[in-house]
Design brief:
Radius of gyration: 19 Å
Helix content: under 10%
Length: 234
């Protein structure tokens, strides 16, 4: 049983200029006292077919974590455009928020991101090159998070845990990963198509440990009446 569950994640300041920080308001529930801090990380997928272009935008330690409902804001700088091929700056990509305990990731939340050039340009010629990144707008598809959970060991190191099957991927490939599946599904789709509705096939649950939470991650303010909002962030 997971001792920490993400119950809501709100994307703040969305849409925004490409160079603006990412900002997420995260609400999670802690069921039992934890001996160690939680590590939260924000990652940006820089190139669809090459995971070596992924960037860790920020990683923080949160703790000590009180039992109950906790809330904090996780903010991360925009990606370094010098590390992204210019041809991959515009279009659909993925931003990931992950959480780990004792260096073991137990939840990964992925969002589609659509980057568009804000000024008119000739569709046949494409946006100006070199690209003026200050004129790029970022829109996160906040209504459709893809949530993947992983079983980990929370307590005694001798406690048995069912490990997920090992993946043997060549360096730079992302076959089988949650972001890889999201990018594969996004090929040839406009962002409007991704918001098609709750019954769209591309968002159907595929495995027991994968769910599209959306409304399921939401929590009424009434239920959060005794929430702990003061969390140390290192």
């Amino acid at each position: 049983m997971a001792l920490v569950n993400v119950v809501n994640m709100a994307v703040l300041d969305n849409p925004a200029p490409f160079l603006s920080p990412f900002s997420f308001e995260i609400t999670f529930e802690c069921l039992q006292p934890l001996e160690d801090d939680l590590e939260w990380k924000v990652m940006y997928v820089g190139q669809a077919d090459n995971s070596t272009k992924d960037q860790v935008l920020d990683e923080i330690l949160v703790g000590p974590v009180p039992v109950g409902i906790n809330k904090f804001i996780l903010q991360a700088d925009a990606p370094d455009t010098s590390q992204i091929p210019e041809s991959d700056i515009l279009g659909v990509t993925v931003v990931l928020v992950t959480c780990s305990y004792r260096e073991k990731e137990f939840v990964r939340i992925g969002y589609y991101v659509n980057n568009e050039y804000a000024e008119p340009y000739d569709p046949e010629k494409g946006p100006p090159s070199p690209l003026d990144v200050s004129k790029v707008r970022r829109a996160i598809l906040a209504e459709k998070p893809r949530v993947t959970r992983f079983p980990i060991q929370w307590g005694d190191k001798d406690e048995p845990v069912e490990e997920p099957p090992a993946q043997t991927e060549a360096e730079g490939q992302r076959e089988g990963s949650v972001e890889g599946k999201m990018l594969e599904e996004a090929k040839g789709m406009a962002l409007d198509d991704m918001v098609a509705g709750d019954d769209a096939e591309e968002y159907e649950e595929e495995e027991d440990d994968v769910s599209v939470e959306g409304r399921d991650m939401m929590m009424d303010d009434v239920a959060m009446g005794n929430s702990n909002t003061a969390i140390a962030v290192e």
